[in-house]
Amino acid sequence: MQYQERAEGRIQKEKIAALKAEKNQLSLKKKEEEAQKEYERRRKKMLEAERFHSAYRIHEKNAKEEAKTQEHMERRIQAVLSLKNSITSNREKLQALQAWNKAKAFEAKKQEVTMREAILAEGGNVAKEIFLHKRLLQHEKEKQAFREKQKSRKIEIVSKILQEKASIHKQKNQQSCVKAVKSGGKFKDPLLWRKKTWQYIEKTCEHPAGVLPQKSWCSPSACSPAAERTAPVGQGSAKSPHDVLCESDEDEKERDQIPAEPELPGRWSQDCDLHEVKAVISSLKNRKK
Fold first, then answer.
1. pLDDT for 55-101, tens place per residue?
2. What sign for the dihedral angle of Cα 257, 258, 263, 269?
3. Which UniProt keywords apply (predicted)?
4. How many Cα atoms sit within 13 Å of 70 on the Cβ side?
């Protein structure tokens, strides 16, 4: 009897364990299905986002290409319109120039006829007078062309001079920058340099009067010989206050020793006299006559 009760209890426990295992298996399967569904949902969402991003990139690329094409077309249209306007303007200028040349030729012909009639009325040589008149007009044209040529030459010379001055100014600035870099501690301002020099002299040099007076400054040309004459023998390589001050003045003088004007050889320094040229031309023509 007890054995049967134990067997039934064991069977009951096994059934409960089997039900729990089945329940656990069902819950695990359900969780796996939910995880699979969540994975599919996320994957679908990622694919949609990637597809949307790809479509957006394609749309943006197409929009950029379309804008570039539109800009290129507008540029070509503007170039065609500009060319058309230029052709129209040149045509109008050419027509105006042709009309002016015709009017000028007509006026010259009219003046020639009037001159011929006046010469015939006076009983002069028509061919000679007309020839001389044409020679005079040709001479005036040559003089005008010569003036224009001289003007262009002067403009070219002035431009070359300005370029030379600009290059010299640039070279001067570069040299000053190089000197400033090489000096290492030198000051660009002469007053500040002298102030610092006096401070150095006050600290390092001993003088009976305490501080050297300002009147002891000398010029660069007269400073070095005086320093050589007054320097004592026992000092060796030590510098006196005069040497320090003269070196500062010599540095300033070297900084200013840069040519201010370019050296332009040849006819750059010659002035062209138009009256002399006219006299030479007239004398040559008189010799030909």
1. 888 888 899 999 999 999 999 999 999 999 999 999 999 999 999 99
2. negative
3. Coiled coil
4. 6
